[in-house]
Amino acid sequence: MGEHRGGNGPHVRVAVVGxxxxxxxxxxxxxxxxxxxxxxLERAGSVGGTWRDNDYPGCACDVPSHLYSFSFAPHFExxxxxxxxxxIRAYLEHVADAFGLRPHLRFDxxxxxxxxxxxxxxxxxxxxxxxxxxxxxxxxxxxxxxxKVPTEAELPGLGSFPGKVFHSARWxxxxxxxxxxVAMIGTGASAIQIVPAIQPEVGRLTLFQRTPPWVLPxxxxxxxxxxxxxxxxLPFTARARRGLLWGVRELQVQAFTKRPNQLGLVERLxxxxxxxxxxxxxxxxxxxxxxxxxxxxxxxxxxxxxxxxRPNVDVIASGLAKVDGSTLVAADGSAAEVDAIVFGTGFHxxxxxxxxxxxGADGRTLxxxxxxxxxxxxxxxxxxxxxxxMTIIGPNTGLGNSSMILMIESQLTYMADFLRQLDVLGGRxxxxxxxxxxxxxxxxxxxxxxxxxxxTGGCTSWYLDASxxxxxxxxxxxxxxxxxxRRVDLxxxxxxxxxxxxxxxxxxxKDTEKVEAGA
Length: 519
What we know:
Pfam families: FMO-like (PF00743)
Number of helices: 14
Largest sheet: 8 strands, mixed
Helix content: 25-40%
InterPro entries: FAD-bind_Monooxygenase_sf, FAD/NAD-bd_sf, Flavin_mOase-like
Protein name: NAD(P)/FAD-dependent oxidoreductase
Family: Belongs to the FAD-binding monooxygenase family.
Region (Disordered): 500-519
Shape: globular
Radius of gyration: 24 Å
């Protein structure tokens, strides 16, 4: 730990929030840059992020294993082309060990508040496990970390439901589903894995489907010992495999971002996939989307459609509207008696709870700063008014067809250059994104977004915020994003230094001095 700066706890150069892919990746990159004065603040008792929290039956990744891993930490022992949750979590534990990250981890330390100190030019951080201060903060809490569960106001009667209720990301493994009447609320990526996993054991399964998803085959297979041995003995074969997986997805991007009409062929493949599994034309009609494929996340499964045809499964093509005792009533009036409710209703993505806990230079929280404009930042990283703070998987960095690890690694390059620039500037210094630079970046992103399938495909998705703005997805290739985050452009930042001795602002407090970079 570094020196004390007048705060309540130890001072570090960097505080990383979260220990999923983003947080652990940041920690590895810091060590590779020669920075060891940092902590990783984790609210739970182990690493893993969303791959620790989401351990529901059937949980797996829909990105191939060799692409869903760090380029600097190749893994040659993936057992399947698409890995299950337990294997991805084990990989992250391995990364923590292999790169010597354990001494930096602070478990059971949920960040409750972090505030920028304009006099000391550092962040004061309060956590459930103690207080810290830091020159620089990397927020890697991730967009899929805080489950979204309907409130009593949104779903009348929920509070009086006599049975079991839980979210897919907080699975209650102590509750025995065998023989129970279970309601699955939602048809997103988690639901289509849960449904076939629990269908054989429950008494009755009722799926409440507000909007049907597009589902393509999951081209999964086991990876044999000989294949794993080859990758381990000849690592270039694993790199070639990763490169091929990446290249195919880069070529697909234009259909999503510039020519959505080209996705018609993919729709036909999805319909054929459904027809092979679902013989009942009435059920097929309920399961057929009325929007362009890709507008919502495309899902992969070979078992979802077959599970829906089983005798103990009912599909209600309407969202859940209210709860009356143990009876669940859909918006179309359909009803089902159930013993348990499983919410597959997604996460707080465009309204991340961490934003309420980050207080910037002007005393406003990040949530308040984004209240009117929606989530926005410079190059998916820096928010104006929040010096020496950046987010991993920030606004408009999500992907619709490839691996988020690629985006994370690009942001880690940006983080590393940010810290180098602070070193070059020297002394007590901070960089604060210029509001006009943030505006210009977001105008470019939103202009490009206008043609994308996510904005034109005729659906409402979790990519959009409450005002209909797409503040989630990146409207380009991972190559373009890597180029945009290769280095920090100082002209997009203001340099913040302590004001000359004795300087006071209008409130009588010591002021800081902002200088245009390069001035």
